[in-house]
Write a structure and sequence with these properties.
Arc Repressor Mutant, subunit A, alpha/beta, 44% helix, 196 residues, 8 helices, Rossmann fold
Length: 196
């Protein structure tokens, strides 16, 4: 495992304090990634925090603050995948539109697999995808990443914060629908962003 594990910033929106605390504890004990989890108690706090920074995931109860308006949240923050928190199996009919769901019976392994699945979920982009769908900064970061540099090394080389590099990396993967380094390398080679 790399010493510089990726840090995921996750919001947890659940009205039941014991369930909210349990989810945060579970997230913070994942071994595959470092998690910084933040609990929110109200919709206002949820929207305020989401406006300040991009979160990697939102774990939210469909009943948060009454009824959580998933469509409204996704309209405002389409880059944040929403994971439904299901505290009884009768709620399974309410998880349509969420990326995935977790139940009160799930363990850390299930949540870890869910996060890994999200990172690998998109299919590889066609090799002839136009490189102009990336900004010049994204191309610059992509070139450094496919050279094998870590997020920290890219941030040092380009004089950017690690968070900025991670955000660009996430945007590159979403735009290209490629979530593996080998796929990004093939894309960069086929679009003449790098040479063999």
């Amino acid at each position: 495992m790399k010493a510089d594990k990726e840090t995921l910033h996750i919001l947890v929106a659940e009205d039941l304090p014991i369930l909210q605390g349990g989810i945060i504890s579970l997230l913070e004990h994942l071994t595959s990634v470092h998690v910084h989890a933040v609990a929110v108690q109200s919709l206002q706090t949820l929207y305020n925090l989401s406006a300040v920074r991009t979160f990697d995931f939102l774990f939210v109860s469909p009943h948060f603050n009454g009824v959580f308006d998933l469509a409204e949240f996704r309209k405002r923050y389409p880059q944040t995948p929403c994971i439904a928190i299901v505290n009884n199996l009768g709620m399974l009919s309410e998880v349509k539109g969420y990326y995935r769901y977790i139940t009160i019976y799930d363990d850390a392994d299930k949540v870890s697999r869910l996060i890994e699945q999200y990172q690998a979920d998109c299919t590889e982009a066609p090799l002839d995808s136009p490189p102009d769908q990336l900004s010049s900064r994204e191309k610059e970061i992509l070139i450094e990443l496919v050279k094998g540099l870590s997020n920290k090394e890219v941030s040092d080389r380009l004089c950017l914060s690690v968070y900025t590099v991670m955000t660009h990396r996430r945007n590159i993967c979403r735009k290209l629908k490629i979530h593996s380094l080998s796929g990004l390398t093939i894309y960069a080679l086929s679009n003449k962003l790098i040479d063999m």
